[in-house]
Amino acid sequence: MGRPLRSLPPSPWICFFFCFCFFTCFQGCLVAAEVDPNNIRLTPIDRDLYHSSVDLMKEIQTVVHRHPDKLTIETMRSGNKGYLAEIPVVTYCHGRKNIDDLSKFRILLSFGQHGRELITTELALRILLLLSGEQFLPHMDQASLNNTLANLVIKVVPMENLNGRRLVEAGDLCERRNGRGVDLNRNWSVDWGKKEKDYDPYEENPGFAPFSEPETQVMRKLALTFDPHIWVNVHSGMEALFMPYDHKNTTPDGDIAQQMKLVLEELNNLHCHSRCMIGSGGGSVGYLAHGTATDFMFDKARVPMAFTFEIYGDGAASSKDCFKMFNPTDLGTFNRVLSDWSAAFFTIFKLGPEYLGDTELHSKGNLDKLVSIDEYLEGYLIERSSRYGKKREVLELGMQEMRTYFRLFLLSSILLLFMFCSRISKNKFTRPLVSAISI
């Protein structure tokens, strides 16, 4: 038989070794938890501060119905391949008698183009409450403000990207694109489709063609029919006041560029407390953006003053914590952002007509806009498909073919004309001389 085993007391060195291993593993887990982005505690939507998309639109509709003498609302719809988009448009016009009066100064504002930027849609609601007279701006002469507003027609798009907003509310807090994965601020025709070296399809997918998305089709139609003097596209992610261009590191030439810069400098001093970045979007942010709404409004729609405002950003937030990065998360900051930026918009309402002047006001009109054949055909097909309810496949399947046939027709016509002229010229100079006398 073997010797029976005795229980021996553990060595202190063995105890020390196990304790050391346990402590090291514990520290490693803590470090991994701090480094691993998947373990970052994400900030949820604060329902006490922010409306849901449904509640926001209900409140806006209620405000409109309480003030029929100032506000109207319509819903513009579009769709293709089974994808539908609805965009509410609120129009402010004092008295509602002169909404179509081209002598009035016209302003078009768009909010919520990116779904994750909830603060922008809250600002839209605040501006509508101020326009209705239910709320007032401190330190502003109400009589002077009323005189300014009497000469304006303002169209407000409070939530351009409703389908993308629904994805955010369902839990995808970083989603900026529309309901089928296209960035609406990359789907416009100016310099469309160009991709930088750091191109991220999740962030910047431009779609399969300019205006492929129902949302941009609606906004394009709205801009060309309303013909605004000022366009402002409102975003969040930083604090900035941008003018064109987004797709290149330059600003426009001429007096209008100087006027836009003066307006932005005054807004920065009065309402942004000199914190805001000013300049072209492409030259200030550090990257170029192609196919943006503001570049289209300035270059194609010929809007005299086209701006992009970035109203809030938390630079200390993790890139994974999107709600905190793009939206205020405490009541004090939330109220400050809405107060400062709503005041900035009412300053725009006052300064716009003063800077542009009567000459620019009366010279505006759709007749002076030069539209390419491609844009004309595209707009025509969009209009017909909307009017008669036809499927939008005509845009994808027929547009390219129509463009091709038109270009071939032009090319063949030029070639035939060239051949005809060449033949006439050849016959004129090489025709043999015939004697007038019979031989």
UniProtKB/TrEMBL annotation:
Cofactor section: Zn(2+)
Recorded superkingdom: Eukaryota
GO molecular function: metallocarboxypeptidase activity; zinc ion binding
SMART domains, alphabetized: Zn_pept
Residue numbers annotated as active site: E310
UniProt GO cellular component terms: extracellular space
Alphabetical GO biological process terms: proteolysis
Bilayer-crossing regions: 404-421
InterPro entries attached to this UniProt entry: At5g42320_M14_CPD (IPR034269), Peptidase_M14 (IPR000834)
Signal peptide interval: 1-28
Keyword list, A-Z: Carboxypeptidase, Hydrolase, Membrane, Protease, Signal, Transmembrane, Transmembrane helix
Stretches assigned to the Peptidase M14 domain: 49-351
Xref: SUPFAM superfamilies: Zn-dependent exopeptidases
Similarity comment: Belongs to the peptidase M14 family.
PANTHER family referenced in this protein's UniProt entry, alphabetically: OS02G0119300 PROTEIN, PROTEASE FAMILY M14 CARBOXYPEPTIDASE A,B
Record protein name field: Carboxypeptidase A6
Organism: Momordica charantia (Bitter gourd)
Lineage: Eukaryota, Viridiplantae, Streptophyta, Embryophyta, Tracheophyta
Gene: LOC111020704
